[in-house]
Please model this.
Amino acid sequence: MDFNRRVFLGAAGAVTASGVLAGCAGFSRPSGSSGADELSFTTWGSEAEEAAFRASIAAFEEANPGTSITLNLVPYEQMFENIDAQLQSNTAPDVFRVDYSTLGAYSSQDQLLDLSSYFDVADADAFIPAFWRAVQFEGTPFGVPHQTDTSAVLYNRAAFEAAGITSVPDTLETAWTWQEFEQVAQQLRDSLPADRYPFAYNWQQAGVTRWLSWLFQAGGRFLEDDLVTPAIDSPEGRKALDFTKSFFTKNFVPANSSVKSSTYASDSFYSETSAMLFAGNFLLPDVDSFANFEWGATYMPRDVRAASDLGGNALVATASTEKAELAAEFLAFMVSEEQMRNFCAATTELPTLQSLVGADIDFATRPDIMPIFVEQATTIQESDVAQLASPDMASINTVLSDQLELAFTQGQSTDETLAKISEGIAAATA
Amino acid sequence: MTTPVLEEAAAAPGGTPRAAPSRRRASRRRALNDALAGYTFLLPNLLLLGVFLFLPLVWAVRLSFERTGGFGDGEFVGLDNYIRLFGDPIFWQSTLNTALFTVLTVPLSMIIGLALAVLMNSVLPARGLFRTIIVLPMVISGVATALVGVLIFDQNIGILNKLLRFVGLGAAPWQSDGAAAILSVVLVTLWIRCGFNMLIYLAGLQGVSPELYESARLDGAGAWNQFRYITVPMVGPSTFFLLIMNVIYSFQVFDIVYVMTGGGPGYSTSVLVTYAYQNGFVTRDQGYAAAIGIVLLLITLTFTFVQWRASRTRDLVE
Model:
């Protein structure tokens, strides 16, 4: 056969095309889960979380010789777009991490492994009931509650001293009422220059559900007991919205700290633009690094009741995994008392096991402040969790974000805002 | 001894009936071989375009006729998604914002690009350095540039407001006022896009013969007249190309808006692609998002077609 230019180019083309196509076929598949004793595990995480996950994986592999877990670490911003695409194309990892508000979108559409046959009643009873409730859909568990986090108030000691605020509540029972909190904010407003603010609230972007803490504190709810009918257009809803709108009209918060802002509340605390910050405990390592001033912490304000946000994440296995047994075993290992204790200590996050509530966990950052968050987490009630774990939370979040933004920045009235949120929730749950 | 070639050559002048079909066959074979070679060269590109452009496009059209819930097969709903678009005020506001963004960024970025190209084509000292500085934002990822934009335009701790306060002017509400927010997005876009426009115009300018300027000067034309009557018409093909590309870029803007403002405050910076993203990837309403994408495609195609038919200088050469 003559080996001329045309033959060479043809062969080169064929080789290139097959290479390109081979590459395409495998580009989205998480690596390393082909063997019978191998699992792929996809998560996002801070440096501390990554190190803690790697330590747990190493411990699992050591306890189960021959098994291998491949950790795929992805940025949070891309996490669920990737997972959605992988589930659609049947290339999803065996196990992944998911927040409680997003879990319902997967469990309600048969994308997750039913764990009923792997976890018995005793296993379920080991968890704080609210969190076991958060991983269920219609009574069936589809994940394990791995950790939780919640918000409390951090404050700049110097700004408080300058405003003449000499003490903050040191028990959950004596937490500021809304009126007391408003007085503190006003006191700070009066003492701070115009370009500094009393506080910043952490409801930006995916954190918009944290606005619901105000609704719960006012004694309200956004879904009725049937978890379908909107309940937000109520006197409690009106009270919560009026109170939070006043943060902007009274210049208590920076004008650019609304729910769609690209600037997170924490940035304004680090730069001392805000004297107080509503922050999740997972943020403490960052606050410790970036806030170059003396700061302390206290409880969230309360109204009719105390409440805070349901942060944290579950671990789930995909319905399509071919290694269901091993995946369930891995999930059980990750929520064992020893692993959960180590993970929470290293990452400054809170446990979901009853046995670790009140336990002496050796938190890596500000162990003096962590008990405030531990106690604050007890204000999350099962009825709050039932609503927050609705499978329609993605659509409800969008409605909340759009309408709260209009109320906070565009002067939309409270009545119109509540009516539109209610309408949006009804459409989402229909 | 004679060769077949000579035999054929000897027979040709006489025009024997057997020679002509044989030549035609040979000519057809050559044409076929040439076409085959051409398609072989095109094949990798056609394959890539087919797999990554046309196939997803057809899929998107199909998806736009379906109601989807995130997973599994969609349900065919005909034109429902398109009908829903007409009654959706956020879609219309996003369309208006996209049009406003396009009207502001396209002419401004082209004017600045041409001005910079003329400057860089002159005897400016340290031209290489300036060219690099101007082109730099183009080679950095859009998200990274937008994050720099956030640092500049943050209304509490941003560099720009600190500067404004320092010179005695008040801080501007870049993130809490709709008009200021869209202006901040436009300014960062201009910063990114001027470099590309400058490069294309510079290439166009370097193809313009110096003799044209010399004869204009001999005829008494000043700098402005040389620019107006020689430079502007002679870079017509570049202008045509840039107009199409800039309009497409502006209609497709996503990363800058998503990172800098997230579509807010309110919906004042929401554009078609951020709205499609919100529907497709946040609320998992992919059918509706696909319908927004198809409308965007139709708008872009219509503009390109009109511009193609209307432009008189697109093929102008010396």
